Known about the structure:
The chain is of the alpha/beta class. The protein has helices at 45-53, 78-94, 108-120, 145-154, 171-178, 209-218, 239-263; strands at residues 2-9, 15-22, 31-35, 57-61, 100-106, 125-129, 156-162, 165-170, 194-200, 224-229. It folds into two domains: 2-135 and 181-263, Rossmann fold (3-Layer(aba) Sandwich), CATH 3.40.50.1820; 136-179, no CATH class.
Amino acid sequence: xxxxxxxxxxxxxxxxxxxxxxxxxxxxxxxxxxxxxxxxxxxxxxxxxxxxxxxxxxxxxxxxxxxxxxxxxxxxxxxxxxxxxxxxxxxxxxxxxxxxxxxxxxxxxxxxxxxxxxxxxxxxxxxxxxxxxxxxxxxxxxxxxxxxxxxxxxxxxxxxxxxxxxxxxxxxxxxxxxxxxxxxxxxxxxxxxxxxxxxxxxxxxxxxxxxxxxxxxxxxxxxxxxxxxxxxxxxxxxxxxxxxxxxxxxxxxxxxxxxxxxxx
Length: 264
């Protein structure tokens, strides 16, 4: 695998850090863009697993305010991250002179990818790994009682620190996230876009029934395919589950790559 790193200008005063992974004998010249989850980076275990195990060319990047990218991030900035994806897609087409075959996201990144698809309808294949549908409530175990008390009294608290980056949770972030309407996936154009959802049956972060909701809204096949990986958790940490997950992605891309580039 040949990897090159670069930065993508967003025209908003900051760059996005990205890396292109070119595979020998790839089944397509198209690029699969990979999107990481909440407060993570392109080096997340799930993203690295997909890079290593699928034979297609991939491009991974850090969303704004994460990893090596500039800008700031927040708990509810889903549509800002949609614009990040738009910048990456444009860069691939205009600077790398390649087609975008697929966008694949994990967790929060998966929800962002679905929002991008519903808004733009310009990338033919979409893969969603462990995506949340219902954002109306914050998981009760995500924040401590002390953090929630600080939120009530001061309006914000530092949730996590990674290196020099502080991830701050604000009241506005929670309101924005809780009002996120994922039913917009119904507007994904079935003539232009096909989607694959993969979810672990024992996802401890996002209930597996969320995947069935997406199947009802985007499906049926061939417009949407649902794969439930038995006993897999949110990040597909088990090696066998990783194998099942990445083989499902590869076989689905193989089945649909010709359709994708005939349609776009």
